[in-house]
Design brief:
Largest sheet: 9 strands, mixed
CATH architecture of the largest domain: Alpha-Beta Barrel
CATH topology of the largest domain: TIM Barrel
Strand content: 15-25%
Distance between the termini: 50 Å
Radius of gyration: 23 Å
Shape: globular
Length: about 425
């Protein structure tokens, strides 16, 4: 991560997919703040992922709907051959409305309500069980489907070389190794004929070794399960965890090298065990969309007290990650990309919370009231994590189409939307019109 000294006098090293002129044109029809997505970038990236795993004849990327739940974007990914990974009833409904069904849907949930399982079963989705006790729960609800998946938690610390990437032992998800064997046997007794294995052991990794290291663990587990239980392993889902370069000095993950690394361990472990037909699945949200979304916001105020503050019309309700995780999102001042970053400031929203900051002590070009800012890498876990604290309304979502046109793919909320759930209350009726 760059420190203040490194950043001082550095020109903005991330390039937005919007120019100032194009953004000002958009703002004439759609006021800030808004989220906007780059269709061309999304499609090119989806094709690159397909290429990286094309050596596996049944490979499929199941986009994590939770990252960016917008049907227009789901349709783009569907056209590029992707399925969807759903974790809730409404995500299943949205996916069904977009034309996904059957094996195009992975349902990966936890603490799962009955209606969620029932809809996943009805749609013919691959159901990924998070807990061994859910075997009986699902059986009593719908019966056990012939093809079923179980989520594995390896426990301990997940390491690559000597670096600890995450602590699966602290995560609430998945079966232990012993439970995987017990669970497979129980499921076989209850009629399951084909199996999948799923695991998510680390988040936002910035190394090409994450997927190959995870794959090695899962491939060996698949071999052991097949040999000890006789289970027909149809697919292995590497889940998500492949990160993006939020910081400008980071080296982005190379999905082609990642695919080659998985291919290598596939050939080393699965093929000698007679499991060469196993399909590889992924369910990336962040990698698929984060770099191809901007949050565009305009400077409303500047404040000069113990430090410098730049106040914008977006807030943590539009992008929570900096406020709740301290996450870094790069910021470009449109039209000032070539100016030196000599102005140190906090970039803040207007919530009544002191953590409502997109950046702290950030070095930017000199900023003036009215400037347009692009907050980068907001295409995943951006709009989707929005909320209505302080009565803030969610912004519009726009799509920059391949032909350069812009269309609205979700309108901005209005006060009527905010008050809609008070429909039992006569005092609010004038706001619901």
């Amino acid at each position: 991560m760059m420190n203040e000294k490194d950043l001082k006098n550095q020109k903005n090293p991330k390039i937005p997919f919007l120019t100032k002129e194009k953004t000002e044109e958009i703002c004439k029809e759609y006021p800030t703040p808004f989220h906007i997505y780059d269709e061309k970038g999304i499609r090119e990236n989806a094709r690159l992922v397909q290429k990286a795993f094309s050596w596996n004849k049944n490979f499929k990327e199941y986009f994590a709907v939770k990252a960016t739940p917008n049907p227009f974007l789901l349709k783009i990914l569907q056209e590029e051959g992707c399925g969807v990974d759903c974790s809730s009833y409404t995500e299943l409904q949205m996916s069904e409305a977009c034309g996904f069904s059957g094996s195009d849907i992975m349902f990966s949930s936890n603490v799962t309500p009955a209606q969620d399982y029932e809809l996943a079963y009805k749609l013919g989705a691959y159901i990924n069980l998070d807990d061994i006790t859910h075997i009986e729960y699902l059986e009593n609800l719908t019966g056990i489907p012939e093809t079923i998946c179980c989520r594995f938690n390896a426990g301990g610390k997940f390491t690559i070389s000597t670096e600890i990437m995450d602590s699966p032992e602290d995560a609430k998800y998945g079966f232990t190794r012993e439970q995987m064997f017990e669970g497979f046997r129980k499921l076989q007794e209850k009629g399951a004929k084909h199996f999948g294995i799923h695991a998510f052991l680390a988040s936002s990794t910035m190394t090409n070794e994450y997927y190959p290291t995870l794959a090695k663990q899962l491939f060996q587990l698949a071999v052991d399960l097949h040999q000890e239980t006789g289970a027909d392993i149809q697919f292995i889902n590497l889940s998500g965890g492949v990160g993006v370069a939020y910081h400008p000095e980071q080296t982005p993950n190379d999905i082609l090298k990642i695919g080659e690394g998985v291919h290598k361990v596939f050939d080393e472990i699965l093929i000698p065990a007679g499991l060469g037909d196993v399909a590889i699945f992924t369910e990336m949200g962040r990698f698929m969309l984060a770099p191809y979304g901007h949050l565009v916001t305009r400077v409303l105020h500047k404040k000069h007290i113990y430090k410098e503050y730049v106040g914008v019309d977006a807030c943590a309700a539009n992008l929570m990650r900096p406020a709740i995780y301290g996450a870094y999102h790069h910021i470009t001042v449109l039209g000032k990309e070539d100016q030196d970053c000599t102005y140190k400031c906090d970039v803040t929203g207007g919530l009544c919370e002191n953590n409502d900051k997109f950046a702290i002590d950030r070095m930017l070009p000199p900023v003036e009231i009215g400037d347009l800012l692009v907050i980068h890498d907001a295409g995943a876990h951006g709009f989707s994590m929005g909320y209505n604290y302080n009565g803030k309304l969610r912004s519009a979502e726009l799509l920059l189409c391949e032909d350069g046109s812009v269309k609205m793919i979700r309108r901005a909320e209005t006060p009527a939307d905010y008050f809609a759930t008070f429909d039992f209350c006569d005092i609010m009726k004038d706001y619901l019109k």
